Amino acid sequence: MTGKKIGKFYKRFVAAAAIFMTLCMAGCSGAVTSPADFMPGKAGQAENGGEADTAADSDLKVHFIDVGQGDSTLIEQAGHFMLVDAGEQDQGEAVISYLKKQGVKKLDYVIGTHPHSDHIGGLEAVIREFDIQKVMLPEKEHTTKIYERLLDAIADKDLKITLPKVGDSYVLGDASFRIIAPNRDYGDNLNNWSVGIRLAYGKNSFVLCGDAEKESEEDMIASGLDLKADVLKLSHHGSSTSSSEPFMDLVDPDYAVISCGKNNDYGHPHKEILDMLHKRSIQTFRTDELGTILAVSDGSKVSFSAARSDEKESRDTAKVRTETASVTREYVINTNTKKFHLPDCKSAASMKKENRKTYTGTREELIQMGYEPCQSCSP
Fold this sequence. Notes:
By secondary structure, the protein is an alpha/beta fold. The chain folds into 2 domains: 59-321, Metallo-beta-lactamase, Chain A; 328-373, no CATH class. It is 25% helix and 25% strand. The chain has helices at residues 3-24, 92-101, 117-120, 123-129, 145-156, 214-223, 245-251, 271-279, 287-290, 346-349, 363-368; strands at 60-64, 73-77, 80-84, 106-107, 109-111, 131-132, 135-136, 161-162, 169-172, 175-181, 196-201, 204-208, 231-233, 255-258, 283-286, 292-297, 302-309, 320-323, 328-334, 339-341, 356-362, 372-373. The model is unreliable at 1-10, 22-53 and 309-324 (pLDDT under 50).
């Protein structure tokens, strides 16, 4: 071997060895187990953007980044940031660009939920671009080049891999998150190896579990840990392999977020999952419909907004339209086609009288009722 190849092999060996050594150590060096560690004010001055000095700066923000058919979630509180997944490899630069626009210079935590490329593909680029404090991956290796390149990036930055240990807790500014999965060895089912977290800030909480399927959900239930959350990011992009009834009963969310690609080959989200959400009156937000979704918590309530790029607009202008999902306004609905329109839409004007109705409410209420937005006026 050349000296360069030997060095590369050594770095990859060190990264793999780090996983084994971490497992053998009693506990994770960054884990926090004392409730006192979660007391407001314990976090130091924000290193990304200075000390938070306004109410808005102190909010917890959870960005469900639109990466097509994949997952990527940026979490921030008081200038502290963490990233969970980064979509496919070709989404790496897009994720980096989004993070920079949010003022990210350092990531306190980077979590790769499991080795599938639609979750960890973009992480290599992210790790090479930013100052990273801690990287967390499940103890399940993969033989793909994408996974190996991720290990190379971790080794090149002289980072150690932290293995998720169920029950361990970590701080992010004045917020905290606890590891709720994976609970055991799931063999070759990579989805069930997904790292699951319950994020808490004040009275609000979020649950995110990668692609965890029903088998992993059963183990989360059996663990006895608190799974209740205001917001649930549906696992596996809204697939029927996840979101079992017993799991949904315990999480009991008011809101659900689905990260999936428009017209994807898997049919995500599956109809039975959408029906279940509707039956439970869970307000649902989808990246394939809304683009990147932002959830903001002030510690007592959660609000949502979504930034959608109009496909008809020129890429040169890159005009992004921000809309608040809870805004109440007037729509025209077609009871026959089950589509809704803006009042000045040409399709609404030509609608048969017997099929035309006026509805005053929110966009998401109409979607929950089974209506689809018109492709022409994009209400």
